[in-house]
Specification:
With 298 residues, the protein is an alpha+beta fold. It is 54% helix and 17% strand. Strand 1 (144-147) and strand 2 (150-157) form a beta hairpin. It is found in: Cell membrane. This is Mechanosensitive ion channel family protein. InterPro entries: LSM_dom_sf, MS_channel_1st, MscS_beta-dom_sf, MscS_channel_2nd, MscS_channel_C_sf, MscS_channel_TM-2, YbiO_bact.
Length: 298
């Protein structure tokens, strides 16, 4: 009898709990609030990202205009920080709706964060270094850089890592705390240097006059050249050629392409004007039989 009474009482309690309308209404309201928080957080992230993109949109003629390279870097960083902040606040609101007291959670998070700070010093160093990289504008997304002897184009700068991609496709990822040396090729104008070899038989004044005409064409046809190219004169005297040097100031990281175009234009114009570019010639020597026959013939 006692066992039946126990099971009967337990069944009655379970049935009463399951059929409690007020409880299910309350649970349903909590679930709806959680779903609403998730949806609203995603909508808020989209709105904030659209607003950030609008703020950092490149505007011509803006008095406070920044370089586009820095604008792209700041835009990505602000979007990431805003996204993480909104989702973190949404998580706290969800925990609050589930009846969890946030005060012990926040206190525990502070103590845990302090412990992690002591235990993960390299992570803290990465974050601090990443902040100063962005704040000091050492390099930005789209810059062509050499970091720790690895060269490529910056794809991403975060508070913890930096990602660059080489021209052959490899992607290098550096924790910011390990970045010891950076060479940025995109901050200032570069110099294209071209050495032109001509034969000793050519008139150097005529060659220089032709080069001036070519450099005028270079300044007109190559938009990456920002100043008049300079003909420096004779750079070296080789065994079979006179080497003349030409320089042209061009936009950041465009000197390789400008140099190739300048060489092609010089080669084409020299051929039209009849200027000889020295090259190695192979002279066939007569065989011993032919040499002997020639001597007998003479």
């Amino acid at each position: 009898m006692e066992g039946k009474n126990f099971f009967g009482s337990f069944y009655d309690k379970v049935f009463e709990y399951v059929t409690n309308t007020d409880m299910w209404i309350e649970i349903g309201l909590v679930v709806l609030k959680i779903i609403a928080i998730i949806i609203l957080s995603r909508i808020l992230v989209s709105i904030v990202q659209a607003a950030v993109n609008q703020v950092f949109r490149h505007r011509q003629g803006n008095k406070l205009q920044m370089e586009q390279r820095r604008v792209d870097t700041m835009r990505v960083l602000v979007n990431n920080v805003a996204q993480y902040t909104i989702y973190f606040l949404a998580l706290l609101m969800v925990l609050q709706q589930m009846g969890i007291d946030l005060r012990p959670v926040l206190v525990s998070a502070g103590v845990l964060g302090l412990a992690v700070g002591f235990g993960a010093q390299s992570l803290v160093r990465d974050v601090i270094t990443g902040f100063f990289i962005i704040f000091e504008d050492q390099f930005a997304v789209g810059d062509f850089v050499t970091i720790n002897n690895m060269t490529g184009t910056v794809q991403e700068i975060g508070l913890r890592i930096t990602r660059i991609r080489s021209w052959t496709g490899e992607v290098f990822i550096f924790p910011n705390g390990t970045i010891n040396q950076v060479t940025n090729f995109s901050l200032a104008n570069t110099l294209a240097v071209v050495d032109v070899s001509v034969a000793y038989e050519e008139d150097l004044k005529q060659v220089e006059s032709i080069l001036k005409d070519i450099m005028t064409q270079v300044k007109t046809e190559l938009p990456d050249v920002v100043a008049d190219p300079q003909i420096l004169g004779v750079q070296a005297l080789g065994p079979s050629e006179v080497v003349m040097r030409i320089t042209a100031e061009c936009k950041p990281n465009t000197h390789h392409g400008v140099s190739r175009n300048m060489r092609a234009m010089i080669r084409t114009e020299f051929t039209k004007r009849g200027i000889q570019i020295p090259y190695q010639k192979i002279v066939a020597m007569p065989s011993k039989g032919q040499e002997h026959a020639g001597k007998e013939y003479s």
